[in-house]
Amino acid sequence: MAVPLMQAVRVGRYVVKQHLLGRKRYPLVLMLEPLFRCNLACAGCGKIDYPAQILNQRLSLQECLDADAEADAPVIAIAGGEPLLHKEMPEIVKGLTARKKYVYLCTNGLLLEKKLDDYEPNPFFSWDIHLDGDKAMHDSSVCQEGVYERAVAAIRKAKERGFRVSINCTLFDGAQPERVARFFDEVMALGVDGVMTAPGYAYERAPDQEHFLNRQKTKQLFRDIFRLGKGKKWRFTQSPLFLNFLAGNENYHCTPWGKPLRTVFGWQRPCYLLGEGYAKTFKELMDDTAWEQYGTGAYEKCADCMVHSGYESTAVMDAVKRPWHIAKVALFGPETEKPMVPEISLENQRPAEYKYEAQVAEQVTLLESRKPARGPRVRVHKAEEKPVEVADAAD
Ligand code: SF4
C-alpha cells in the first residue's frame, strides 16, 4: 500500500468528520512554501521567477507551525523552491510530525544525501522526490545533466536508512506512454513506497510554454499509461478516483481550498498553482475568496488544469460520498476503454488577468519599508569607484 494504513484511516476519519460537521470547505493538505529559492531552474516551473529580495525571504519555523495551527489539515506538503536550502527545515519537520501531521518533504534530491543525517525516519514523515521520468526525460525537464542520477542515489540511501520515499512525477507534452510505464516499473523496482503523478500546470512565468498538456492530451496520455500498467501493481500515493479522473472518467470540478498554500507572501489565492492574490490569515482565505471565479470553465488560466492541487481533494470527497465507486476503481484500476466523460465547456470562462508585475512591486516595496533606516548595504567597487548594491545573503 503506497499510503500507510494508519494515514488512510486518519485522513478518512477527518473527511467524514468534516462532512458530519457540515463544513462546506475544509483543507485536506496544507501546502507550505517556506521559500521560493531553488538550486535548479526548470523549464516548466513558474515558481522561481522573482527578484533576489523575494527569493531570499523565508517562512520561519514559527510561521510554519502557525500556518499548521491555522489550517489544521491532516497532511502537510512542504514544497518550494527547494526546501532543503532552508536552514530550519529539520526543526520544521520535527515540529510538524510531533503534532502527528503526515509530512511530505518535496525535494529535487540534489542536497538529500548531504542533509540526510539531519532527519530521522518517522511514520509521519516521507521524502517526496521529483523525478519527471527516466534519466533523459528528467534531466531534460530540469535542464541539467546528472540530476536524475543524484536523485536516484539519494533515494537508495534514504531507503537504506529506513525512510519512506515517494516519487513526484510531472508529465509534459511529448511524454511517451511506453517510456513512462517503463519508468514506473523502474521506480517500483527501486523500492519507492509510492508515486504521485500529474500533468504540469501551464505556469505563465515558466520559460518553456510549448510543452504543457491540454486536458484532452492529458487524459489520452494517462489512459495509455494506465492501460500498460494493468496487472503491474504500481503503487500510487493518490486517490484511485483522482487517477480515474486523469484518465478521463470523472466529471470533477476543482476544489482549490482542499490544498491551501502558505507562502512568504501570505495565504495564496486561489491555489498552489495560481497566485491571484494573498490573504493575511487562513480564515480570510477560506471566507473571503471568490472561489466560484476559479476552476476549469470559470477562468481562462484554469482551462487546461488537471493537477492534484485542485482535483485530488474533489476525488477524496467523492470517495466519501461513493465508497462503492472507489472500491471498484481501486480493485480494477482506472477505466481505459470506455468513452471519456464530456469535457467542461469553456464558453463562459472569464478572461485571464495578469497580476504578477503588480504583486512583485508590492512585495518589494513592503520589503524595502521593513529595512533599517540606514538603507541597503553598499560596497565600493574599487576598479570603477562606484557603489554596487550587495544582494541580501541567502540563508
Ligand atoms: S483549476 Fe483549480 S487548481 Fe487548477 S489552476 Fe484553477 S483554481 Fe488552481
From TrEMBL:
Domain Radical SAM core: 20-233
Cofactors, names only: [4Fe-4S] cluster
SUPFAM superfamilies given in the database record: Radical SAM enzymes (SSF102114)
Region annotation Disordered: where it falls in the sequence: 367-395
Entry's Gene Ontology molecular function annotations: catalytic activity; iron-sulfur cluster binding; metal ion binding
Keywords attached to this entry: Iron, Iron-sulfur, Metal-binding, S-adenosyl-L-methionine
UniProt-listed PROSITE patterns: RADICAL_SAM (PS51918)
Domain of life: Bacteria
InterPro entries associated with the record: Aldolase_TIM (IPR013785), DUF3463 (IPR022563), Hopanoid_synth-assoc_rSAM_HpnH (IPR017833), Radical_SAM_PqqE_MftC-like (IPR050377), rSAM (IPR007197), rSAM_sf (IPR058240)
Matches recorded under PANTHER family: PEPTIDE BIOSYNTHESIS PROTEIN YYDG-RELATED, RADICAL SAM DOMAIN PROTEIN
Protein's recorded name: Hopanoid biosynthesis associated radical SAM protein HpnH
Origin species: Asaia bogorensis NBRC 16594
